[in-house]
Every structure is written in C-alpha cells, then in structure tokens.
Amino acid sequence: MQGEGLKKLQSGQPISTRELLLLIAQLSWPAILAQISSVVMQYIDTAMVGQLGSNASAAIGVVATTSWLFGDLCIALTIGFNVAVAQALGARQSEKARGIMKLAFLVCMAFSLVMMAIALGITGNLPRWLRADPAIWQDASAYFLVYVLSLPFMQMNNLCGGLLRSAGNMKTPGICMVVMCLLDVVFNAFLIFPSGTLRVLGVTLPGFGLGVLGASMGTALSQVVIAVVLVYILLVRSPELHLRRGEKARFTAAQLKRCLSISAPVMGERTILSTARMVTTAIVAPLGIIATAANSFAITAESLCYMSAFGVQAAASTLVGQSVGAGRKDLTYRLGWLTVALGMGLMVITGTLLYVLAPAMIGMMAVDEAVIELGVRVLRIEAFAEPLFGASIVASGVFQGTGSTLVPMLLNFGTMWGIRVPLSAILAAKWGLVGVWVAMALQLGVCGICFLIRLAGKRWLPKETLQ
C-alpha cells in the first residue's frame, strides 16, 4: 500500500485525504521508531551511568549539548542531499538521484572528518569552559572524546538512513536503529560495570568497569556496526539507489550549490539551537551537581516525548519533497497541514504521558531523591509546551521538503536568543533550574505559534505550486 501511494503521488493520480493520512502514517511509524530508539540509547547510557551516582550523570549531562552541536551539524548537512534525492525520485529521475547520492557521500564524509578534528581540539578544556564542577572534568572529557571519534560513523548512519527514507524506505532505518539500541545495551553491560556487578539468567557477567567512558564506547561501537549495515543496504540492496555497474558518478556544481543552499540554513538553525543550549548548560552548571544531574535526566526523558514529532517530520520531508519533484500542486499544501496536525496530535498524547509518568521516567535513571524531585518538577512544566513544540518540528520538515529553510532558521534564532537564553539567566537567579525550564517552555510555545503562522501563509511553497 505504501508503494502504491508513492506511485500515485509520482504519477499524478488523484489521492484522497484518507489515502494521504494512511501514507503519512505508514511512513511515519518506522521513522518514529528510529527516533525513539536513538533517544532510548541516550536513556540507556544515562540510566546505567546513573547507577554510579550523580557525579557520573552530571559528567555526561554537561557535555551533552556540545555533543549535540557537532552531531546536529553532521545531520543538518545531509538534509539538502536528502531533499534533492526525494525530489529527483518524485520526478522519476533515478539516475540523477544516484548521482546526488554519490556527491553526498563525498561531501558528508569530508565534513565529518573536519568536525572530528575541531572537536578533538576542544575536548580537554570543554568541561572547564562550561563551568562544570572540577570533580567531573575528567569523566566529561573522556565521554566527549569517544563521542567525537565516532562522528564519521554517526554521519554515515544519518546519511544512509536519510537517503533510504527519501526513497520511501522508512522501515529499514527504523529496524537498524532498534538493533543499534539493543547493541548499545549489550556493549554497555560489559563496558560500564566491573566484573560481577551484573547477573543475567543467573550468570555473572564479566566487565571492564570503565564507567562513563564505557557508556560512550558502547554507543560508539553500536554506531560502527550499524553504519556498516546501512551503507551495504543503501549501496547494494536499495531498488532505487543501489550502485549500478558501469554507471559513472554524475553530479554538477549546480547540484552541489542547490543541496548546500538547503542545508546551510538548517546547519545555521542547529548551530543556533545547540549553542543556546550550551549557554543554558553554562547557566545551569553553577547551580550545583543536583541541578546539573536533574537537568540531564529531564532532557533525556523529555526527548522521548518529542521523538514522535521528529518521526512525522521525516515522513513530511519525504512526501513534500516527492510531491514538489512530481509537480503536484494539489498535494504540497495539503500534506503540510496533514502532517503538522498529526504531529501536534501525537504530542498532545505524549505530553500528557510525560506529565503523568514523570516520576517513573526520572526514577528509572536517578537514584538520588533530590535529583528525582527536581527532575519531575521541570518535566511537568515542559509537558504543556509539547503540542506547539511538535508543530514547529513537523512544520520544519515540511519546509525542508520544499527547500524553504531560511525563515525557520530565523524564527528559531529570534525565539531562542530573544526569549529562552536571556529569560533563563534571569529566572535561574530567582527559581534555579525551574526558572530555566519555564523559559524553555515559553520559547517553545512562541516558536510553535510562529511556525503555524508561516505554514498558513503559503510563502514557503515553491512559486510553481502556488495556486
């Protein structure tokens, strides 16, 4: 059914709203599963390390935002290539799509190596720059170091998964992310804890006792395994994108410029968001180990909530991109609103669950009662902002599908630096970590409203699709 829906989209056949909703759902659920699995990996790391105490948890939390900055830049670079491939496939230009894919491999791998080199240069001083407690500097630097070394493999995971999704194959990346999550559990079990700490089915497991470093190594090893698998599936098994014998790598400077023109604003947006989070981390760190650990746990727990919206975002970007490539004037705007409505609906549900289950979610990771209490308080504040947060996430994917990425960057910049950062600094002095999360909730709400206004205005549509 999914294949039939995409064929109808590409061939110009009429598609009912019911069929569109079914197609969106079919493309969304594997992407949602993949997104949730990636967060579960963070959850696993945090929960396992949390058993070692608040200092170990804070060590991961203090470098998390910087890790996201480098990871997000690598992810953002792939978006322009993913959109170009989706539009080429929508126009039934498979050879052009494969040429863009080859260009993507060259550019993205080179970029990940540059990012790795830059990150290695700041590893030793990063915890000090973020104003972390000296007691956690060594563990924080060790965790970040291993993360940095895994960046090229993470880049390949994101690129291959994104290209497969652009071709409408959501299931394979989703399954691979689940397997990566399971591998992370296995590797962590052996690497984090000393021998004799864990027992499975009555058998005492050997262990290396590496603590925080082991958590980072477990995640990195799982990334390496899945990167190899995804590269094979994309280049050998994908019906649309697998390499053809004798087919040369055909791509042009114009294609590169087009892809980078889409990716650059997204990279700017991710940089804005990540640097603002780094500043927020620096605001939180002086509040103490308890606040730093609670903030880390709450961020990880909340991310489980909004991953459903990121899954719908992936489907939105693919479907909108293919509809633009197919010249479907009748579908682009409809798909935009249908996907955003679905994303907001899911976030109403997950936001409610976040509020109700906050004690259990934090309690699974933390052992310190003070950390659990503070984490629950801030999560319940954030729960009210989730639906509008979902609107901005999915609408961003819609805009990416058309190549309209500059305005979303500006909206995120304005709300992040105009609301969240200054308000966090002001309210942290009065209310501590609670004030920081109040500022975050307000910013997400305003940003979501701005994205809905942008979606309603139709200026994001390519000129040829305006009616």
UniProtKB/TrEMBL annotation:
Main localization of the protein described in the UniProt heading: membrane
Membrane topology annotation: Multi-pass membrane protein
Membrane-spanning intervals of the chain: 20-44, 56-83, 103-123, 135-154, 175-193, 213-235, 279-299, 337-367, 388-411, 431-453
InterPro entries cross-referenced by the UniProt entry: MATE_fam, MATE_MdtK, MdtK-like
Annotated compartments: Cell membrane
Any single Gene Ontology cellular-component annotation: plasma membrane
Keywords: Antiport, Cell membrane, Ion transport, Membrane, Transmembrane, Transmembrane helix, Transport
GO molecular function: antiporter activity; xenobiotic transmembrane transporter activity
UniProt xrefs under Pfam families: MatE (PF01554)
GO biological process, one term: monoatomic ion transport
Family indicated by similarity: Belongs to the multi antimicrobial extrusion (MATE) (TC 2.A.66.1) family.
Function (record text): Multidrug efflux pump.
Protein name: Probable multidrug resistance protein NorM
